C-alpha cells in the first residue's frame, strides 16, 4: 500500500509539473532570463569599438547613486506614484459606485468613464498637448475668462510634473473603474438590506461591509497602478520629453534615454535592476502585511 501511495503521489506531482510547464517556459523566456541577463549586463562597463567592455562589479550602481539626475528622477517618480496611485484608485471607486447605482443613462455614464482608457496613449497625449498649449489651449482659454495670464504648463518646472500626473489620473481611473464595477456586481444585495435593517447608514455600510469586500480588488488595482507608475514613457515623449531641466523625467524614460540616446546600456541595465528590486520589496511587504487583512470570498 505504501508503494502504491508513493507512486500515486509521484504521478500527481508529475501531472502538476506538466500543467505548470507551459507557464514556466513562458516565464523563463520572457521574465527570468531577461532579468538574469540584465543583471549580468549591469556588472560590465560600457564598451566601445576601441575599448571593449570589461567586468566592473558594482561600479555602475555606484555611478548611479553619485549622479544627481538619479535622485531627481527617483524623487519625481516617488511624487508621481504617491499621487497617481491613491487618487486614481479613489476616483475609480467613486466612479464605480456611481456607475453601479440606479441612475438615468447608466450605460452612457459607464461608457463616458471608460472612453479615456480605450484611447491610444499617443492619441491621448496629443489631445492633452492641445489642452496645455499656452494661450491657444483649452485650459488657458477657460482660465482667460477669469483674467488669468497664459501659462506654459509643460514648459516650466513648477507645473510640468503635475500636468503629467493629471493626464495619468484621467487615463487610468476609467480602467480601474471596470474592476471595481465588476466586483460591486458580485456583492449580494442582501447585505445592504441586512445592514439597513440593523440600522446601519450608508457610510457605515460602505466602511464596514463594502470596502472590506472590495479589498481583493483594491490590492489587484494597487499592484497594477504601482507597475504603471514606473513604466510611463509614451506621454513623456509627446508632452515634455522629461523636461524642463529633468522636472518631469521618470524612471523608464531615463532608462530609455541612457540605453538608446546615450548608448549606455550597462547603466540602463543597472537602473532596471534597481527598479525590479524596489518592486519586489514593495510586493513582499504588500503580501505579508496587506494580504493578512484581506477577506476573500
From TrEMBL:
GO cellular component, one term: plasma membrane
Membrane topology qualifier: Multi-pass membrane protein
UniProt keyword annotation of Membrane present: yes
Domain ABC transmembrane type-1: 74-286
Transmembrane segments: 12-36, 78-99, 111-131, 160-182, 209-227, 268-290
Coarse class of the protein's main subcellular location: membrane
Alphabetical keyword list: Cell membrane, Membrane, Transmembrane, Transmembrane helix, Transport
UniProt-listed InterPro entries: ABC_transporter_permease, MetI-like, MetI-like_sf
Annotated GO biological process: transmembrane transport
Cell compartment(s), UniProt: Cell membrane
Domain of life: Bacteria
PANTHER family referenced in this protein's UniProt entry, alphabetically: ABC TRANSPORTER PERMEASE PROTEIN (PTHR30193), INNER MEMBRANE ABC TRANSPORTER PERMEASE PROTEIN YCJO (PTHR30193:SF37)
Family from the record: Belongs to the binding-protein-dependent transport system permease family.
Name the UniProt record assigns to this protein: ABC transporter permease
Amino acid at each position: 500500500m505504501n508503494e502504491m501511495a508513493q507512486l500515486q503521489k509521484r504521478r500527481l506531482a508529475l501531472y502538476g509539473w506538466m500543467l505548470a510547464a507551459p507557464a514556466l517556459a513562458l516565464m523563463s523566456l520572457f521574465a527570468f532570463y531577461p532579468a538574469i541577463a540584465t543583471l549580468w549586463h549591469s556588472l560590465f562597463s560600457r564598451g566601445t569599438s576601441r575599448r571593449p567592455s570589461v567586468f566592473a562589479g558594482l561600479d555602475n550602481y555606484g555611478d548611479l547613486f553619485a549622479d544627481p539626475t538619479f535622485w531627481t528622477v527617483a524623487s519625481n517618480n516617488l511624487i508621481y506614484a504617491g499621487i497617481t496611485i491613491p487618487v486614481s484608485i479613489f476616483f475609480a471607486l467613486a466612479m464605480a459606485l456611481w456607475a453601479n447605482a440606479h441612475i438615468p443613462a447608466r450605460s452612457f455614464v459607464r461608457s463616458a468613464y471608460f472612453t479615456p482608457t480605450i484611447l491610444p496613449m499617443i492619441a491621448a497625449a496629443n489631445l492633452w498637448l492641445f489642452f496645455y498649449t499656452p494661450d491657444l489651449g483649452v485650459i488657458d482659454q477657460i482660465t482667460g475668462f477669469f483674467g488669468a495670464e497664459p501659462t506654459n504648463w509643460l514648459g516650466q518646472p513648477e507645473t510640468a510634473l503635475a500636468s503629467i500626473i493629471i493626464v495619468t489620473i484621467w487615463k487610468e481611473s476609467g480602467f480601474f473603474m471596470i474592476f471595481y464595477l465588476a466586483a460591486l456586481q458580485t456583492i449580494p444585495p442582501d447585505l445592504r438590506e441586512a445592514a439597513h435593517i440593523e440600522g446601519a447608514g450608508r457610510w457605515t455600510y460602505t466602511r464596514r461591509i463594502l470596502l472590506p469586500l472590495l479589498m481583493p480588488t483594491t490590492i489587484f488595482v494597487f499592484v497594477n497602478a504601482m507597475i504603471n507608475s514606473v513604466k510611463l514613457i509614451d506621454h513623456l515623449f509627446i508632452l515634455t520629453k522629461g523636461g524642463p531641466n529633468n522636472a518631469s523625467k521618470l524612471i523608464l524614460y531615463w532608462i530609455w534615454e541612457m540605453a538608446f540616446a546615450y548608448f549606455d546600456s550597462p547603466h540602463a541595465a543597472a537602473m532596471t535592476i534597481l527598479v525590479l528590486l524596489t518592486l519586489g520589496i514593495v510586493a513582499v511587504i504588500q503580501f505579508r502585511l496587506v494580504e493578512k487583512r484581506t477577506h476573500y470570498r
